[in-house]
Amino acid sequence: MSETLILNGHLMDPANRVDGPRDLLLRDGRVAAVEQPGGLRGAEAAETIDAAGLIVAPGLIDIHVHLREPGQTYKESIATGTAAAAAGGFTSVVAMPNTVPVNDTVAKLEWMLDAARGPVVKLFAMPAATVGSMGEKLTDFDALRVAGAVGFTDDGKPVLEDHIMRAALVAAARAEAPVSQHAEDTRLTGGCSMNAGPMAFRLGLRGMPVEAEARIVERDLQLLREIERVEGLRPHLHVQHVSTARAIEAIRAAKREGLHVTCEIAPHHFALTEEAVGDYDTHAKMNPPLRAEMDRAEMVKALLNGTADCIATDHAPHAAFEKRQEFERAPNGITGLETALGIALRVLHRDHGMPMAKVIELMSTSPAVIASLAGRGAAGPGHYADLVLFDPGAEWTFAARTSRSKSRNTPFDGAAMLGRVRYTICEGRVVYRA
Amino acid sequence: MQSVSAAAAAEPLYAPGSLLSVAHLPVSEVSAILSETARIAELPKEERTAILRDRTVALLFYESSTRTRTSFELAAKSLGATTTLVSDKSSSIEKGESLKDTGLTLRALGAECIILRHPASGAPFVLARETGLPVLNAGDGMHEHPSQALLDLRTILTRLHGADRAGEVNEHTLDGVTVVITGDILHSRVARSNAMLLPRLGARVLLCGPEKLLPEDALRLGPGVEIERDFDRALAQAQVAMMLRIQKERLAGLELDLNDYIGRFQLNGERLAAVAPKALVMHPGPMIRGLEIADDVADGPQSTIEEQVTHGLAIRSALLARALGAGVFKA
After folding, report:
1. Max Cα-Cα span within chain B
2. Average per-residue pLDDT for chain B
């Protein structure tokens, strides 16, 4: 395989505590050498990339995407979704199992991960925790883990029953993978389409209370405690798309207590509030919903102070005709892969002073650890040559019509972005350049 | 907050003449609608029927309705328009056609304005965006019923100030007037529209009802809105008592002890005589006699219930003229 030189860039690799000018040599899909500027003089390479003025970072990793294949390829396919990922600087994505049919067997998982699907970046998957994501009977965690599962989830819905969630955590602990929970007490959210509060009242929409999220998080943490005590196991609970201060508070306390819990926050939950619903804009409809300003501010704080472990987009493409209908009928979800870095740098780095290396940690280093993606999330010698090269000061405006995704359902059409991806390199191959 | 969607801000505006929410109406526009209502009511028949001659108006009803549908239809006809009624029970809506496609079909058939009633809050916004036509919101889910608020306003003005002074309003027209709205506020689009409109004309709106049907969030509908949960205390301050039906079809599992409710919130003759012997009694209908309102009050001298229906016809004539750029709203 060919070699690539990346010269004159600024390497930002939190895992290896590197934050300075470095030259890199990539060989056979791996990072072969990382040297001080000029240290690779004389090295031969088929391609040389001049990274002057660019940040060179380990490729971004999104542990929460919906690629809609199989079954709903009119919304997205593995090929188009991963192309959008590449354009957003992501080199690994983790596909959720709520496809049609649900990804709940080894055969379905292998089909999804097959190279024939044409993924543009590295594709991982979290299969369903329960058969058909019906919340009743566990899938075969051990066999799925051997076949490549990096976690288990019924995302889109919670594992609601206490004893099923308990069994899932036990099985996942034995398989050494996290249970990734969509924390929503659906007994409190029937018929609801946005955040509960004065805005929902005024719009005449039924609202999801913050308790619906907090209750499931608190219940799951209690299960972790019990399992540690009774079974002597140490399960890993990963809480998806946290949106409320109450859930963050519960997670903070559990971390202090020493439980193995991690969580993710989506860009829209730290960048937008329920006000974005405006005149029933279905591009501001997702689950969990956009919350009040107090909760949004708390999401920023949690990312700054380390309570939140990573950023994940919950990329959820839907066709235009599905979103262009009555608010309550429109499906939940927005696309997110191409806007995540630009929003994170603008909101967290520029507006809230988060060091850029911390943004990289939240979007690469830490998600690699959560999903145990060996050899990824870092840019040292021997690691996969998964890199993103971006211009950190570039201000630009996102235009949904230019998206690589099949869908355009984003509240960030026309929104200001900071930091422009110039190259995305996955296992040594340039998969995106601009 | 960091940023609102730029796309939302750049969303194509709704066709002028649309009425989707009372929040979109400046006070001057409310005044213009009232004045056109008064003017049309005085016109001889031949002049009135010329206003919308050769114009086509579609009524699109996804929920049952007696008053609103009939009065919009009669209002359109009284101005000379051709009307067509499409209801969800007897159309391709039953076969799964989307709101957008239904709207585009009506537009292709020549509809110049669509009057929409729909069980989903916000549906008129979708229809207005997708068709580009003026849309009149005839009630959307639990959200709004703007023409009802306007006809209620005309009823109040006519009773309190006299018919000759019901043709114009400003920010102080209802200074000193307390309107008590009682009952199932949570599910009521009539309550929302009135509570958002009347305070902007100087009125004080007191909302009254049990916690389950009146959450504290209602206070944030706007300035001039207050909550008083004791019906007698609220009523004692009222120049206008507006009663609302319990919307059984929208309760969604909410449990309510009806006998307890009747005891605390029913407007009956005894209560009215004791606490508010001069207040106007309003009800948007349909009313459930014996529940939120007693027979003697519904049919009593303080009741404006039938006048409200008559004013509805008049107000909706003006709204149709406005929607189609006719009458005084001609460009």
Report:
1. 58
2. 93
Structure tokens at A277: 């619903």
- Site of tokens 């409320």: A244
Mark yes or no for CB contact A283/B7 under 8 Å. Answer: yes
Q: How far apart are CA B128 and CA A312, in angstroms?
A: 35
Q: Which residue matches tokens 């806007």? A: A339
Q: Looking at beta carbons, which residues of chain A come within 8 Å of B2? A: 270-272, 296, 347, 351
CB contact under 8 A, B192 and A202: yes
Where does residue A28 rank: exposed (0-12), middle (13-18), buried (19+ CB within 10 A)? exposed
Tokens of A362: 């939240």
DSSP summary character for residue A384: B
Q: Which helix (H) or strand (E) holds A319?
A: none
Tell how far CA A111 is from the center of its chain: 22
Active site residue A104: no
Asked if pLDDT for residue A179 goes beyond 70, the answer is yes
Amino acid at A268: H
At B248 the pLDDT is 79
Predicted confidence (pLDDT) at residue A396 exceeds the cutoff of 90 = yes
pLDDT, tens digit, for every residue of B8-40? 444 457 999 999 999 999 999 999 999 999 999
For residue B214, is pLDDT > 80?
Answer: yes
Q: What is the pLDDT of residues A4-21, one digit of tens each?
A: 999 999 999 999 999 999
Structural domain boundaries of chain B? 10-144+310-329, 146-308
Over residues B268-286, mean pLDDT: 96
* C-alpha neighbours within 13 Å on the C-beta side of residue A89: 29
Instruction: Give the model confidence (pLDDT) of A276-324 as tens digits.
Output: 999 999 999 999 999 999 999 999 999 999 999 999 999 999 999 999 9
Q: How far is A295 from chain B (nearest CA, A)?
A: 11
Instruction: State yes or no: pLDDT of B2 exceeds 80.
Output: no
| Contacts with A329 from chain B: Cβ below 8 Å | 120
Q: What SS3 class is residue B89? A: helix
Q: Do B217 and A200 touch (CB under 8 A)?
A: yes
Pick from A280, A328, A415: CB nearest B5: A415
- Summarize the confidence of residues A183-205 as an average pLDDT: 97
Å from B39 to nearest chain A CA? 33
Chain A residues within an 8 Å CB radius of B125: 279-280
Binary contact (B5, A197; C-beta < 8 A): no
- Using an 8 Å Cβ cutoff, are B210 and B225 in contact? no
- Candidates A230, A233, A235, A231; CA nearest to A220 is A235
CATH class, domain B10-144+310-329, is alpha beta
Inspect the interface and report whether the beta carbons of A411 and B7 lie closer than 8 Å.
yes
Min Cα distance B44 → chain A (Å) is 40
ipTM here: 0.94
What pLDDT digit, counting tens, does each position of B97-137 carry? Answer: 999 999 999 999 999 999 999 999 999 999 999 999 999 99
In 3D, which of B81, B78, B82 has the Cα closest to residue B44? B78
Element (H, E) at A50: strand A47-50
Q: Which CATH architecture has domain B146-308?
A: 3-Layer(aba) Sandwich (3.40)
- The Cα–Cα gap between A196 and A190 comes to 12
Is residue A431 pLDDT above 70, yes or no? yes
- Which residue in A has a C-alpha nearest to residue B4's C-alpha? A276
Which pLDDT does position B8 carry in this prediction?
A: 45
> Which domains occur in chain A, in start order?
59-376+394-415 (3.20.20.140)
User: Are the beta carbons of A414 and B6 separated by less than 8 Å?
Assistant: yes
Contact B192 A347 (CB under 8 A): no
Phi, psi dihedrals of residue B111, rounded to the nearest 5°: -65, 135
Count residue pairs from A and B with Cβ separation < 8 A. Answer: 121
What was the pLDDT predicted at B166? 93
Chain A residue numbers touching B104 (CB-CB < 8 A): none
